[in-house]
Structure to design on (289 residues):
């Protein structure tokens, strides 16, 4: 018997391809990670040299570049191509960077909860403590009139209670369990998993790896090519404004976004719309255990 409490093993060859709207071959969304990093706490770092120091101007400033500069550069590109971001957002962003929240609301972004801050991973909670934590987190969203439909834990972290507690608070899909190219049902709370990628994630590609931005572009276009051949999948492109928002990387990110959003066989959408579409198909979960 499997020890996986959340989903069953199901080979992709034994499942029908998802039929996307208008006969599109691939569904595409851009997962825009919008994060707050607390001063003096270790987190994603450009250089390990000072990563354990407090304060750490080198790395903290690098991360802050994303909210001060990078995201606004990316926003102009999204406006140009008509792309709605799937905004994977720490709740502390609501108070720390309200201009970003306002800009996202104006653009009708799809919002996903992403913990409180990326300085603290979502792990090690008792169920009682996690309940309080999530209530506080969603209360911050409700203050600005938003109810995130999706969840990605900071660094894709959860507890064994997280899916159930999220379902009880109105979340309908997760991104953490990036095990497939197609959405699939979970065994908890009627939730589904929408694909997310660690392999074309800009953190995986660039942070700690000497990857040329042109190679990143080649990777993304190869991903698109194979997924178009196969059909029925989700191309998720997770990005961070302090990484691909840097000008020399942004040039290639811009090329990727322009190419994908102009392709006639790609459904350019959001993670939320992908979840809605899948939940309307016969493959969607029916139980709420």
């Amino acid at each position: 018997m499997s020890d996986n409490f959340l989903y069953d093993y199901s080979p992709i060859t034994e499942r029908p391809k998802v039929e996307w709207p208008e006969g599109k071959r691939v569904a595409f969304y851009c997962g825009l990670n919008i994060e707050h990093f607390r001063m003096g706490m270790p987190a994603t770092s450009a250089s390990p040299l000072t990563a354990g120091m407090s304060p750490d101007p080198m790395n903290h400033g690098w991360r802050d570049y994303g909210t001060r500069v990078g995201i606004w550069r990316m926003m102009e590109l999204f406006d140009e191509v008509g792309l709605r971001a799937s905004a994977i957002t720490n709740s502390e962003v609501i108070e720390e960077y309200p201009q970003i929240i306002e800009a996202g609301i104006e653009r009708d972004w799809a919002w996903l909860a992403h913990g409180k801050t990326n300085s603290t991973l979502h792990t090690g909670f008792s169920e009682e403590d996690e309940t309080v934590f999530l209530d506080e987190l969603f209360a911050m969203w409700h203050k600005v009139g938003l109810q995130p439909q999706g969840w990605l834990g900071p660094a894709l972290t959860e507890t064994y209670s997280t899916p159930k507690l999220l379902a009880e608070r109105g979340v309908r899909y997760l991104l953490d369990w990036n095990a497939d190219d197609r959405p699939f049902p979970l065994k908890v709370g009627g939730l589904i998993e929408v694909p997310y990628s660690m392999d074309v994630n800009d953190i995986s590609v660039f942070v700690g790896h000497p990857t040329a931005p042109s190679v990143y572009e080649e990777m993304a276009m190869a991903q698109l090519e194979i997924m178009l051949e196969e059909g029925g999948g989700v191309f998720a492109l997770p990005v961070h404004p302090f990484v691909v928002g840097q000008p020399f990387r942004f040039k290639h990110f811009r090329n990727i976004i322009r190419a994908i959003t102009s392709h006639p066989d790609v459904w350019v959408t959001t993670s939320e719309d992908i979840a809605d579409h899948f939940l309307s198909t016969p493959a969607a979960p029916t139980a709420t255990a």
Remarks:
- The CA atoms of residues 40 and 145 lie 31 Å apart.
- The chain has a mean pLDDT of 95.
